[in-house]
C-alpha cells in the first residue's frame, strides 16, 4: 500500500512538473513571437538620419515663414520677444507660476550659480474650481494670487533672499497671446476649457 501511494505521489509530481514545463514552453514561444513582432515594428519605424534632417530643415523653414507673416505658413507662430537665455550664473530666490489648464503650478527655487546650481526647489499644484474658468477675470486672478501668497508664506528658513533683493516671479500664461514686447501682449482666445468673455482681446502688461 505504501509503495503504491508513494508511486502515485511521484507520478502526480511528475505530471505536475510536465504540465509546468509545457506551460513555460508555451509562454516562451508566445514571448518569442511577441519579441519578433516588436523587432519587426522597430525596424519599420526607424527613420534614417538623412530623413530626420530633412524633417528638421522643413520645420525650420515653416517656423521662419510663420514668424514672418500670419498666413505665411501652416504652422501658427507667435513672437515671444525672448532674446536671451539663463547663463547659469543666476543666484538667489526665484518663484514661477504656470497657468495652463485646469490646474496651475507654483514653484520656488534657490539658485546658487554655476557652482551650486539648483540648491533647493519646491512646487505645488492647485486645481482651479470649474466655475472660475468662466466667470470674471477678477475672481480667477484673485484665486491665483491667494494661492501664490499662501505658497510664499510657507517659505522655510532654508531659503535665503540675498540682502537688498526682492523675490522675483516668472509667469507662464499658456494661452495664445500676441505679444507686443517681453512684458505685454493681447489675449487672442481662451483654450483648455476657459471661457471668460470679458478677457477676449484683453491686454496684459507688466510694470
TrEMBL record:
The reaction(s) this protein catalyses: D-glucose + ATP = D-glucose 6-phosphate + ADP + H(+); D-fructose + ATP = D-fructose 6-phosphate + ADP + H(+); a D-hexose + ATP = a D-hexose 6-phosphate + ADP + H(+)
Listed pathway(s): Carbohydrate metabolism; hexose metabolism; Carbohydrate degradation; glycolysis; D-glyceraldehyde 3-phosphate and glycerone phosphate from D-glucose: step 1/4
InterPro entries in the cross-refs: ATPase_NBD, Hexokinase, Hexokinase_BS, Hexokinase_N
Broad class of enzyme this protein falls into: transferase
GO biological process: glucose metabolic process; glycolytic process; intracellular glucose homeostasis
GO MF annotation list: ATP binding; D-glucose binding; fructokinase activity; glucokinase activity
PROSITE patterns: HEXOKINASE_1 (PS00378), HEXOKINASE_2 (PS51748)
A single cellular component GO annotation: mitochondrion
Annotated Hexokinase N-terminal domain residues: 39-201
UniProt keyword terms in alphabetical order: ATP-binding, Glycolysis, Kinase, Nucleotide-binding, Transferase
Enzyme Commission numbers on file: 2.7.1.-
Family: Belongs to the hexokinase family.
UniProt-recorded name of the protein: Phosphotransferase
Organism field: Triticum turgidum subsp. durum (Durum wheat)
Lineage: Eukaryota, Viridiplantae, Streptophyta, Embryophyta, Tracheophyta
Amino acid at each position: 500500500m505504501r509503495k503504491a501511494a508513494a508511486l502515485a505521489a511521484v507520478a502526480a509530481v511528475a505530471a505536475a512538473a510536465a504540465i509546468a514545463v509545457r506551460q513555460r514552453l508555451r509562454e516562451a514561444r508566445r514571448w518569442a513571437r511577441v519579441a519578433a513582432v516588436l523587432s519587426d515594428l522597430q525596424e519599420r519605424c526607424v527613420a534614417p538620419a538623412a530623413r530626420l534632417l530633412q524633417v528638421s530643415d522643413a520645420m525650420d523653414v515653416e517656423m521662419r515663414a510663420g514668424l514672418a507673416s500670419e498666413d505665411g505658413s501652416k504652422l501658427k507662430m507667435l513672437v515671444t520677444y525672448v532674446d536671451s537665455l539663463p547663463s547659469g550664473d543666476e543666484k538667489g530666490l526665484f518663484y514661477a507660476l504656470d497657468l495652463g489648464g485646469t490646474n496651475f503650478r507654483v514653484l520656488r527655487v534657490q539658485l546658487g550659480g554655476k557652482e551650486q546650481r539648483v540648491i533647493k526647489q519646491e512646487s505645488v499644484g492647485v486645481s482651479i474650481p470649474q466655475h472660475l474658468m468662466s466667470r470674471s477675470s477678477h475672481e480667477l486672478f484673485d484665486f491665483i494670487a491667494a494661492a501664490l501668497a499662501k505658497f510664499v508664506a510657507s517659505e522655510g528658513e532654508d531659503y535665503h533672499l540675498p540682502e537688498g533683493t526682492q523675490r522675483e516671479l516668472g509667469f507662464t500664461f499658456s494661452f495664445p497671446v500676441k505679444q507686443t514686447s517681453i512684458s505685454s501682449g493681447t489675449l487672442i482666445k481662451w483654450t483648455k476649457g476657459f471661457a471668460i468673455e470679458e478677457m477676449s482681446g484683453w491686454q496684459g502688461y507688466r510694470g
